[in-house]
Amino acid sequence: MLKVYLSGEIHTDWRERITDGAAGLDVTFSGPVTDHAASDDCGMAILGAEPDKYWHDHKGAMVNAIRTRKGISDADIVVVRFGDKYKQWNAAFDAGYASALGKSLIILQPPEHDHALKEVDAAALAVARTPEEVVAILRYVIEGRLPA
Predict the structure, then answer these.
(1) CA distance readout (Å), 44 to 58, 65, 88
(2) For residue 61, is pLDDT > 90?
(3) Fewest 10 Å CB contacts: which of 25, 27, 58, 106?
C-alpha cells in the first residue's frame, strides 16, 4: 500500500480529483484539515482563547504541525499543491520538510509559479500541472503502466 500525503491549497477540488482518479490503485491518502476555520482556530478551541492574534495563530500552527509532521513522516510520496488564489507559505514549508526527510515529492502548480517556486521544484521528483498528471504518476509508480 502506497501512502500519499496531499499538502497545499484548500480552495479547489484537486484532492478529490486525485483520490477519485486513483480509485482502484493500492494507495491511501492523508492530508491536513481542509476546513479553513477549523484549521485556523484549532489551537484556541483546544488550548484556550488568546487575545493577541499572533498567539492565536501560533497555537493553531503548532497543533496543526502535529498532524502535518505525522502525515508527512508516514508518507511514501508527498504531493504539494500551489494554487492561484493565495500564497501557500505553509505548503512551501511542507515541501521543504518532506524533502529534508528524503520523501518522494511531487509539486502540483500552474506554469506562472515556475519562477517563484524554482527552488521547491528543484527538490521535487516531478512537477505536475494537473491532478490527472499526479494520478498518472501514481499509476505508473504502482503498476508500471503509462497513460492510455
Answers:
(1) 10, 15, 22
(2) yes
(3) 58
Mapped onto helix, strand or coil, the DSSP state of residue 86 is coil
Report which of 66, 15, 101 is spatially closest to residue 4, judged by C-alpha positions: 15
Give DSSP secondary structure letters for 128-140: ESSHHHHHHHHHH
Is residue 80 packed enough to be buried (19+ CB in 10 Å), middle (13-18) or exposed (0-12)? Answer: buried
What is the mean predicted confidence (pLDDT) over 30-38?
Answer: 94
Residues 6+ apart with CB under 8 A from 127: 106, 107, 108, 109, 114, 121
Dist CA 93 CA 37 (whole Å): 20
- Ordered by where they begin, the domains of the chain are 2-34+77-143 (3.40.50.2300)
pTM: 0.95
pLDDT digits (tens, 9 = 90+) for 102-127: 999 999 999 999 999 999 999 999 99
Contact by Cβ (8 Å): 86, 11: yes
